[in-house]
Write a structure and sequence with these properties.
The complex is a heterodimer of chains A (313) and B (274). Chain A is mainly α and 313 residues long. Chain A contains 13 helices and two strands; from the N terminus they run αβαβααααααααααα. Chain A has a two-stranded antiparallel ribbon with strand order 1-2. Chain B is mostly helical. The chains are: A mainly alpha (313), B mainly alpha (274).
Chain lengths: 313, 274
């Protein structure tokens, strides 16, 4: 492309400075409040814990300047942390799968709507994500609760009491799924809309039924997004805090809840930090697995399409 | 005859699918509606009023100093967060859209707060903000929220920047405009709608953010979710429902404005490409 040279051609360092200045505020904020905190968390987990009485008065959450691995080592044989880790992984896996199972059909239907209706529905999907979590779960508990509309209807029709969703595992799974579902719908709808309609028409024209067309055209096209969505929901599920805390019994407390309890209820900051580091490691591992599967799936799809073979065989 | 049967079948299938979608949407939005409904109770217990409604809990909200302080704090913090995140995001988005090489390392860094478990992030931010000397002030929450909303702002702006017609900038440059002038008078005006959308997202996300506020906030910098939290966990009062309605109302308002701006930005894009 031809471009008439400006009178003074800016030197490379001039451009570098401009780039740095433009990117600096954002990079600085994220480094300072997104990356540095993680390092500090690791450091905090290596403090000796504060003395008993002082700790309850808020003076000695930990002993500054000390190095000790006691809190980290103690996690290995901590039954509470072990149970929390197990439940966290189970909850996040279940919610991720549930969101995909409910979200994919929703996305497929939304993707077929007219552009105007699609916008309206997507705004409706987005609305819950813009109000706060507490409001959402409060509303959900009211809706499902003993005096909620659902029980009124169910009680009238089936003479059921009410759905037993009060401080149990079912409540937590429902709550977390309900919190994450909008993300699944938004991400998957984007992918469904991006499917090439010409390919779909071609498949149908060549005699493929709706199911075959879905399997051979739509599915390969949205598979990478499905993997990414499932992985993201998994990672977000691992960080679950409010739903288990509000809707669960202590048996359903996740790692994130235990972090908060260790920090603010037991005033044991090194333990809280050690739990947070564990949480961080689990989330990172989940992210790595997601990245790996995504990479493998996209590579396989690309190779398959280059060889001109069906991709799902 | 066979064709007719098939088209009827397709119509039935489509109708059923849409009906199911409507049911799912109702399930998704019903709890919001129910909390609005509960806020209108005249009684002092959380219940769904069926005989009479009253606005007494909104009055209680408006007169209670604790709720008033929280409301004011939430609005101030959200506004400051929106301004800061949008400015920072404008810079980072411009750089990332212009140079794929910079984007390759800057984008993962900027998006990291999206996948860090919020509890871990919040707990780590606590000592950092303490060391910065802002702990206990509203600024602490503004910084925390800016870091957390920046990914959204960045994504919205980068997407719009990549949609822009590059030949317009090239034309301006060809006519002798400096890089800065081309950006200021060609790129920035086209970004206006997206800037409003990004700022509104940052505003509403910060306004309703709970976890960072729980860790980083103090009673002096109470925000609305921070006041809702203990009343939700320990003493369930209809005031919570009223506060919830305020929350939802502000979110819905922002969404309507976003939709309006998104609409016009979309129209502008389609008419300029014609």
């Amino acid at each position: 492309m031809h471009r008439s040279a400006p009178r003074v051609r800016p030197s490379w360092w001039h451009r570098l400075i401009v780039t740095l200045m433009a990117a600096a505020p954002a990079a600085l904020i994220v480094l300072l409040l997104g990356v540095l905190p993680l390092g500090w968390l690791i450091r905090m987990s290596l403090y000796a814990r504060g003395g008993g009485a002082a700790a309850t008065r808020g003076a000695g959450f930990y002993q500054p300047g000390t190095w000790s691995t006691e809190s980290v080592v103690a996690l290995w044989s901590d039954p509470v942390a072990g149970a929390a880790l197990e439940w966290t992984l189970r909850l996040s896996t279940i919610t991720s799968v549930l969101c995909l199972v409910v979200g994919l059909p929703m996305a497929l239907v939304i993707g077929r709507l007219s552009a105007r209706w699609r916008r309206v529905v997507l705004l409706g999907v987005l609305l819950p994500k813009l109000t706060n979590v507490l409001v959402l779960l409060f509303g959900l508990m009211l809706t499902l609760g003993a005096s909620g509309p659902l029980s009124m209807v169910l009680g009238q029709v089936f003479a059921w009491g009410y759905v037993p969703v009060h401080h149990n595992a079912l409540a937590v799974v429902l709550g977390k799924t309900w919190l994450l579902l909008p993300y699944a719908v938004l991400l998957l709808t984007r992918a469904v809309v991006a499917v090439d309609p010409a390919q779909l028409r071609a498949a149908r024209g060549l005699g493929a039924g709706p199911w075959a067309a879905f399997l051979h055209v739509t599915l390969p096209s949205i598979l990478p997004t499905m993997v990414l969505t499932a992985g993201l929901l998994w990672v977000w599920g691992i960080g679950a805090f409010v739903a288990p805390y509000l809707m669960g019994a202590p048996d359903q407390y996740t790692l994130a809840v235990e972090v908060q309890r260790a920090t603010f209820e037991q005033m044991n900051w090194p333990r809280g930090a050690a739990l947070a580091v564990l949480l961080l490691m689990v989330a990172s591992a989940a992210l790595l697995v997601t990245g790996g599967v995504y990479w493998a799936v996209t590579r396989r799809l690309r190779d398959g399409s280059m060889r001109g073979q069906p991709c799902d065989s | 005859m066979r064709f007719l049967a098939q088209s009827t079948r397709v119509r039935v299938a489509t109708g059923t699918a849409r009906l199911l979608l409507a049911a799912a949407m109702a399930m998704l939005l019903l709890p919001l509606l129910v909390s609005v409904w509960a806020s209108l109770t005249p009684g002092s217990m959380v219940s769904l009023p069926t005989q009479e409604v009253s606005l007494r809990w909104y009055q209680a909200l408006a007169t209670d100093p604790r709720w008033r302080l929280a409301m004011g704090n939430s609005l101030t913090i959200a506004a400051a967060t929106a301004a800061l995140a949008t400015l920072a995001g404008l810079g980072s988005a411009t750089v990332c859209a212009a140079s794929p090489r910079t984007a390759a390392w800057l984008t993962p860094l900027l998006l990291a707060p999206l996948v860090i478990p919020p509890v871990a992030l919040a707990m780590g931010q606590l000592p950092v903000l303490h060391a910065l000397g802002v702990w206990g002030t509203a600024s602490a929450l503004v910084l925390a929220h800016t870091c957390w909303t920046l990914p959204v702002v960045h994504l919205v702006l980068v997407q719009r920047l990549l949609e822009l017609d590059a030949t317009l900038v090239a034309a301006a440059r060809g006519l002798g405009a400096s890089r800065w002038r081309a950006w200021r008078w060609v790129v920035l005006p086209q970004l206006k709608g997206s800037l409003v959308i990004a700022a509104l997202f940052a505003f509403v996300l910060s306004f309703n953010e709970f976890l960072l506020a729980l860790f980083v906030g103090t009673p002096q910098s109470d925000t609305l979710p921070r006041v809702i939290w203990p009343s939700l966990r320990y003493t369930l009062s209809p005031a919570v429902a009223a506060a919830s309605t305020v929350s939802t109302g502000i979110a819905a308002l922002c969404l309507v404005v976003v939709a309006a701006f998104g609409w016009s930005a979309f129209r502008g894009a389609s008419s300029s490409s014609r």
